[in-house]
């Protein structure tokens, strides 16, 4: 990784990097569960380790995960990964961890299920 730019605001933690891999490779690493586990860790149960699940995605551009840790009193937060092409076949990578919390959905909600990346 190179060209790091880290920023913390009252609401968000923002990390920006230029990665030496192609956007397609980075996209696969963020959205294929087995590969995402290499970056994010194995998704836990929220009790013994943080749990995360994909909540939405814009192919080859943005993916968002809900993040929970039941070992703290903190509610679920949102982690957004944004990628775009950079010169030389590299990838501009931006991670935003929002301090804003996600609303909890009722277990019996009849809403549309979110699509999962393959």
From TrEMBL:
- Which Pfam families does this chain map to? AHSA1
Q: Which residues form the signal peptide?
A: none
CDD domains on file: SRPBCC_CalC_Aha1-like
Q: Where is the Activator of Hsp90 ATPase homologue 1/2-like C-terminal domain?
A: 22-108
The UniProt similarity line reads:
Belongs to the AHA1 family.
Name the chain's protein.
Answer: SRPBCC domain-containing protein
The top of its lineage is: Bacteria, Pseudomonadati, Pseudomonadota, Alphaproteobacteria, Hyphomicrobiales
């Amino acid at each position: 990784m190179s060209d790091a730019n880290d920023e913390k605001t009252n609401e968000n933690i923002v990390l920006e990097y230029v990665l030496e891999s192609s956007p397609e490779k980075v996209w696969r690493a963020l959205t294929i569960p087995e590969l995402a586990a290499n970056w994010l860790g194995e998704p836990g149960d929220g009790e013994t380790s943080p749990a995360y699940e994909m909540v939405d995605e814009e192919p080859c551009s943005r993916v968002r995960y809900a993040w929970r840790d039941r070992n703290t009193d903190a509610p679920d937060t949102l982690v957004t990964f944004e990628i775009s092409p950079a010169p030389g076949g590299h990838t501009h990578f931006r991670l935003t961890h929002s301090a804003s919390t996600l609303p909890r959905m009722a277990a019996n909600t009849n809403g549309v299920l979110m699509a999962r990346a393959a």
